[in-house]
Amino acid sequence: MAEPRKLRMGMVGGGPGAFIGPVHRIAAELDGKCELVAGAFSQSPERSREAGASFGVDPARAYANYGEMIATERTRADGIDFVVIATPNHLHLPVAVAALEAGIPVMSDKPATATYDEALELESSVRKSGLPYGLTHTYAGYAMVREARSMCAAGKLGAIRKVAVEYFQGWLSRPVETTGHKQAEWRADPERSGPGGAIGDIGTHAFHLLEYISGLQVTAINATLRTVVAGRKLDDDCSAFVRLSNGAAGTLACSQVAAGELNEVRLRIYGETGSLEWRQQDPNRLIVKWLEGPEEIHHAAAPYLSADARAVARVPPGHPEGYLEAFAVLYREFAGALMAWKDGAVNPLPSTLPGIEAGVRGMRFIDRVIASSRSERWVEF
Amino acid sequence: MAEPRKLRMGMVGGGPGAFIGPVHRIAAELDGKCELVAGAFSQSPERSREAGASFGVDPARAYANYGEMIATERTRADGIDFVVIATPNHLHLPVAVAALEAGIPVMSDKPATATYDEALELESSVRKSGLPYGLTHTYAGYAMVREARSMCAAGKLGAIRKVAVEYFQGWLSRPVETTGHKQAEWRADPERSGPGGAIGDIGTHAFHLLEYISGLQVTAINATLRTVVAGRKLDDDCSAFVRLSNGAAGTLACSQVAAGELNEVRLRIYGETGSLEWRQQDPNRLIVKWLEGPEEIHHAAAPYLSADARAVARVPPGHPEGYLEAFAVLYREFAGALMAWKDGAVNPLPSTLPGIEAGVRGMRFIDRVIASSRSERWVEF
Amino acid sequence: MAEPRKLRMGMVGGGPGAFIGPVHRIAAELDGKCELVAGAFSQSPERSREAGASFGVDPARAYANYGEMIATERTRADGIDFVVIATPNHLHLPVAVAALEAGIPVMSDKPATATYDEALELESSVRKSGLPYGLTHTYAGYAMVREARSMCAAGKLGAIRKVAVEYFQGWLSRPVETTGHKQAEWRADPERSGPGGAIGDIGTHAFHLLEYISGLQVTAINATLRTVVAGRKLDDDCSAFVRLSNGAAGTLACSQVAAGELNEVRLRIYGETGSLEWRQQDPNRLIVKWLEGPEEIHHAAAPYLSADARAVARVPPGHPEGYLEAFAVLYREFAGALMAWKDGAVNPLPSTLPGIEAGVRGMRFIDRVIASSRSERWVEF
Amino acid sequence: MAEPRKLRMGMVGGGPGAFIGPVHRIAAELDGKCELVAGAFSQSPERSREAGASFGVDPARAYANYGEMIATERTRADGIDFVVIATPNHLHLPVAVAALEAGIPVMSDKPATATYDEALELESSVRKSGLPYGLTHTYAGYAMVREARSMCAAGKLGAIRKVAVEYFQGWLSRPVETTGHKQAEWRADPERSGPGGAIGDIGTHAFHLLEYISGLQVTAINATLRTVVAGRKLDDDCSAFVRLSNGAAGTLACSQVAAGELNEVRLRIYGETGSLEWRQQDPNRLIVKWLEGPEEIHHAAAPYLSADARAVARVPPGHPEGYLEAFAVLYREFAGALMAWKDGAVNPLPSTLPGIEAGVRGMRFIDRVIASSRSERWVEF
Predict the structure, then answer these.
(1) Residue C371 and residue A59: Cα distance in Å, rounded?
(2) Deepest of A362, C15, C357, D15, by most Cβ within 10 A of its Cβ?
(3) B237 and B186, same structural domain?
(4) Based on the domain organization, do B297 and B333 belong to the same domain?
(5) Residues of chain A with C-beta less than 8 angstroms from the C-beta of B380
(6) Does residue C346 sit within a domain?
(7) Could you tell me if B132 and B337 are in contact, meaning their C-beta atoms sit under 8 angstroms apart?
(8) Which residues of chain A have pLDDT under 50?
(9) For B28-54, what is each residue's pLDDT tens digit?
(10) Which of C361, C206, C378 is nearest to D241 (CA)?
(11) How far apart are alpha carbons B234 and B256 in whole angstroms?
(12) pLDDT tens, D347-363?
């Protein structure tokens, strides 16, 4: 039996200056299941070609816009198998809908869309299409996040009582969006970001992790949004309490003005008999503390881990994996689902891979945080 | 010139089974400035004598109750110089007032009293007496807490934007107060603890640290109290947002049902250009992160620290000091103030030593948290 | 100008059950400069095809042995640009020589050969051929290893006085080579490993790091080899003192019977005014301690790092990179050198990429360790 | 029954400028078993009185020299119960012998004497006297050192295969002994220190820990001494291999020119099935790694620890203890032994408290290290 060919992907966004385009390329190709063959990398045709060249893409397939890419690729015998969306948020919906309507599956960067209403629209579009739609909530691809999720699901900690998630960065401590910083520019612009600043950019990651690992849903939220840097149009700092579907409580904090923090994603889960702690900057260890008995450190790739955690390890314990590998796990799972779907599977996405449902909840999160912060009260989720 | 004699102290509480009595004894005597010579260690005369013997106290000075101790000691030529209060909370006020009225200075365990109203009463009593009154907010005695405080005061981080304090324990994860656990018993009993459970026992420490280090005051609070363990009468878990006097925001969390945590006191301060992080379980290091430039670790006793931090170190850098030494710093400062007061100084307490003002604010904190949690809204502080 | 095509590589070894084959594939392809198109993955033709299929290699190019691969590929218009050697040690020399004699550059796993004599033979073969030859001393690809190297080269620590390197694993704590463990089997077999056990497998890494980072050369060695597990034919534990070319001293330790250790590569360099510490299991941080002033932590990808360190980062600070990314840095540099060589450059390998010189020194290290351990004395290097 | 009175101690050394005098005072008094009542703190009568005053010692008992102290105190009804030796090394023997000959027990700072011959002389003096003699190898008093020792003794790791101990400081990186630095001055002077520099000052601690924790004895040693700082008369850096009584091997390293290190005492023990790691700068945690199963962190004062470890904890888990508390454990044990001896016990010292045997072995260590380093070979221990 022949090894199935690599899945061909076409990227929208990710042009020169973008951080996330090359990340998607590396992550998608890392496990040898996908290859980048086409793209509408920039709204400038020239810059799109330039980016294409940097990726080794055939110049003929470096398009000036996503419409052209979709229209052309769908007619090629060797056309793309799926679209990767790596644009600012305001383009997530139109690109995704265009691809889905053309019958092309989608792997999208987060958040799913720019607004909650758009998310509902996208959800309906995905449902109608029956096509695979994946969402790159990167942290969901880390082995030890998978281990934490498995431990919660297996009840290892007893009933969950308390969850604390935070994502702190410091890079927006000054108004760098006014000084030509491309990454900061669109994130600080409501036209391109949507109504959420830090909460959209990184709060949605924290929110996703909270629900993803605990297996619980947020049912109510009490949030305080702040815009710390004068003149900034969107929030750059958020603290929130949440109530969870099992009666537990949680805190969620994110900030882009936490001077000195890099990408401090940190998560703790407290159950009746033990607790978990994970930090992205030390990703290959999961700290497990018990009410009785010694604290433990579980190491990625170790034989004592859950099947879900072991499944995503590429190297033996003690050799660190990182951000790109976590990202690649999502692509590997998406590619597997896509293959299965091509073979006729319905709803092929594994539960470990974030999809449109996670996307809608993430946009709901932004919406609810803003509502709560404005009213200074608890709001239902 | 002769070395001044040691100050004589009489302890109330701290009898058999108490954790904190021996801690006060060691801390008070550690720097050679004080000695325990009398006590009303227990409400049972027999147990008081037993405790006295374990401390090497003259049996004649192991009293059956604090009233007797105060009445007798004030008439002795070698009577006590101050009273140490190490009882459950409900006795803090009556003991302190009795001592002050007898003209005897007081060093009290925290919280200052059982209720906010009592705190106001105590404050008035302290003011009227003109006597030194110290409060053992232990963590204020750590060298690196002093360093953090100095750095904030000196503006090293720029304006403070964000503060996060937490104190997590797990030892009340089960209803141990119903199984004869003496420490848990009185803490879970509103008659002896006052209206605050975890917030009174450890939340007040977190609150004190927040204001002590940042130099800011809490002006409003939005808190959620929970009683996680069924049947418990007081809160065992709290999350709160706070607004600070300079417009900054903060979070404060405490829990005694965070299974697996021991005494996890952790504090972070974010300013415009850098941030600080300190953990009690790694107390001799202060982590300093800059918006620009490498992260730093400042070590206790190092020559590059502030004068305030260097002043409290007893051993060279790299030899760890701990909880008892921090506690002893407060006694050393109290003893120094007492000596100065005996020599005629007015208001001799150094600003580094918590006193009645901190005590009143701590009780106000408990009061405001409860009010906010009940109303599910922000309340003014 | 068209983007240069990807370099085509043919792998020898790396068949089913091998850990290192997939690692080479991922690492080589990660930066989009190379692609695996051919291989002699196993000495069994069937297993070679099986492995080829798992890599997506055209079945026609999954060869039964390396001779056939080289002979066939050199005649194809789209033949391989270089050979990757991922076999047990005893094949490193014959494969490399065969490739070089056929005019094909080589990227080889370490150690360079099975014996020191072979290394000299290979060195002469490489020299004669004038072809690029790279050696995958993985740890040399970590950003913070590059930073440490740059700091030493720039004299940031003053003259180096002391170096301590160790590589500890525990996986050979039991005689797993007798129980069908493929990885252990060939490593424990002198016919395939050469005369070095742990010193060949991991000691050479430690040795390479020592010279690579410090910029110094070992001039004498005093080593103690042990075979801790009964019945094992090769060493599984080594401790050594070394003298360095500037008069400094060092220690080098490696073990595969350090029960509980995973891949604990740890390196410390002490200079007159400061020191460095790096651990593979926390690879994105370099600890810098000064004789005067606070300890520092330098983070991968940070703007304050040396150009060499920044050059190899793919993601922003705070997003961890790991083992595969470090490995990929070597391939990226090798690919760049190969391109330059095709364009006529002589000696195109950058000094950051280990080559035949490092290979010969590594084999000399094994030879000298054995000689010293046998004589129980210092030996010249 | 009356509480036994405190034991009265007289200190030799520890005068103004000494670091270790106040440490002995605090440690001895911390558990309420001893009190400092006399001393010959300095060879200058004036400075001795000054130091006495700082300790609150009766001026009449601040002696001009140790002979006078011993002669006078032995005749007082309330004379000292034991002598504390806190002088430079060359005085350890004469002071100890004088005390023992006067029938007064001794608690001595380490190393036991200045030379190995002196140690044998002291051993004979101790034996002849039948008096308790304790040696303050501080690190032996840490709870987690006790835990490590208990785990080794109980065979928790299987047979021990490998031990690595190191003690690194940086404070002698420059010739500070030439600039009036009192602590450095006598340590760098063979007349006062004996033939060992770093090996005497801190190497003996590392050596003691190695044997104390592992329960094994060093049987042979291969050491390299260096004097890194030009003009210094004694060693300031040492690396050594050792063979142990059960056939295991070890490494021992100490340095006072490891720029940037503070008091980095680090110990690792590898057995057949697991390993231990302890660092003084993180003293309340013992890291336990298993060949199979998760890594563990054992916390001081936790209920799952051995009886020996629990016995020395003063505060609940999560409240750190440090260097002074470890030191105080030795005094507490010495005081207990002294009480028992007064009540007629023979050989009352518990095995957990270092005594003359440890002292002789420590001096033998210095002797053997120098012999090995000179001959550049293994020497029998």
Answers:
(1) 59
(2) A362
(3) yes
(4) no
(5) none
(6) yes
(7) yes
(8) 1-2
(9) 999 999 999 999 999 899 999 999 999
(10) C378
(11) 11
(12) 899 999 999 999 999 99
**CA of C175: which chain D residue's CA is closest?**
D272
Q: How many CB atoms lie within 10 A of CB C141?
A: 26
- Tell me the HSE value of D147 on the side-chain side, using a 13 A CA sphere: 29
Tokens representing residue D210 in the block: 């190695």
Q: How far is CA A116 from CA A119, A194, A195, A199, D175, in A?
A: 5, 9, 10, 13, 68
Q: Are residues A221 and A147 in the same domain?
A: yes
Whole-angstrom distance, CA of residue C297 vs CA of residue A180: 29
Q: Decide if D295 touches A, using CB distance below 8 A.
A: yes
Clarify whether residues C173 and C59 are in a common domain. Answer: no
State whether residue A297 sits within 8 Å of chain D by CB: yes
| Contact by Cβ (8 Å): B199, B304 | no
Nearest-10 Cα torsion for B112, B116, B120, B123: 10
How many domains does chain A contain in total? 2
Residue of D289, D291, D292, D295 to mutate, interface with A, max A Cβ within 10 Å: D295
E-only strand ranges, D158-294: 160-168, 218-226, 237-244, 249-255, 264-271, 274-279, 285-290
pLDDT at position D282 over 80: yes
Rounded to 5°, the CA angle B237-B238-B240 comes to 170
* Same structural domain, C24 and C132: yes
* Residue A365, φ and ψ in degrees, nearest 5: -55, -50
Kindly give the pairing relationship between strand B7-13 and strand D34-40: unpaired
Q: Which helix (H) or strand (E) segment is B46 a member of?
A: helix B45-54
A320 is a domain residue: no
pTM: 0.97
Cβ distance D173 to C249 less than 8 Å, yes or no, reads: no
Beta pairing, strands A160-168 & D160-168: unpaired
Respond yes or no on whether the N-terminal peptide bond of residue B88 is cis (omega within 30° of 0).
no
D210 in Cβ contact with D250 (< 8 Å) = yes
- % residues pLDDT > 90 (chain A): 94
Same domain, A102 and A160: no
| Amino acid (one-letter) located at B77 | A
Whether A271 contacts A160, CB under 8 Å: yes
The predicted-structure confidence for B232-268, as pLDDT tens digits, reads as follows 999 999 999 999 999 999 999 999 999 999 999 999 9
CATH number at residue B228: 3.30.360.10
Q: Distance between alpha carbon D182 and the CA centroid of its chain, in Å?
A: 20
Note whether D21 and D86 are within 8 A (CB).
Answer: yes
Q: Is residue D322 part of a domain?
A: no
Tens digits of residue pLDDT in C294-336: 999 999 999 999 999 999 999 999 999 999 999 999 999 999 9
Neighbours of A176 (CB within 10 A): 15
Rounded distance between C-alpha atoms, residue A36 and residue A34, angstroms: 7
User: Of A158, A255, A376, which has the smallest distance from its Cβ to B162's Cβ?
Assistant: A255
Residues D181 and D210 grouped into a single domain? yes
Q: Taking a C-beta distance cutoff of 8 angstroms, is the pair B321, B27 a contact?
A: no
| Containing structural domain, residue C232 | 143-309+361-380
Residue in this structure with the two tokens 């840095």, named with its chain if needed: C329
Q: Distance between CA D359 and CA D110 in Å, rounded?
A: 7
Identify the sign of the CA torsion A205, A209, A211, A212: positive
- ipTM for the whole complex: 0.96
- Residue B314's SS3 state is coil
Q: Find all residues with CB under 8 Å of D304, minimum gap 6, and list them.
A: A292, A293, A294, D298
- Neighboring chain A residues of D303 at a CB cutoff of 8 Å: 292
CA of C78 to nearest chain A CA: how many angstroms apart? 17
The 10s digit of each residue's pLDDT in C94-118 is: 999 999 999 999 999 999 999 999 9
Give per-residue burial for D178-198: e unless 16+ CB within 10 Å, then b.
eeebebbbbbbbeeebbbbbb
Residue of A315, A327, A331, A339 to mutate when probing chain C, most C C-beta within 10 A: A315
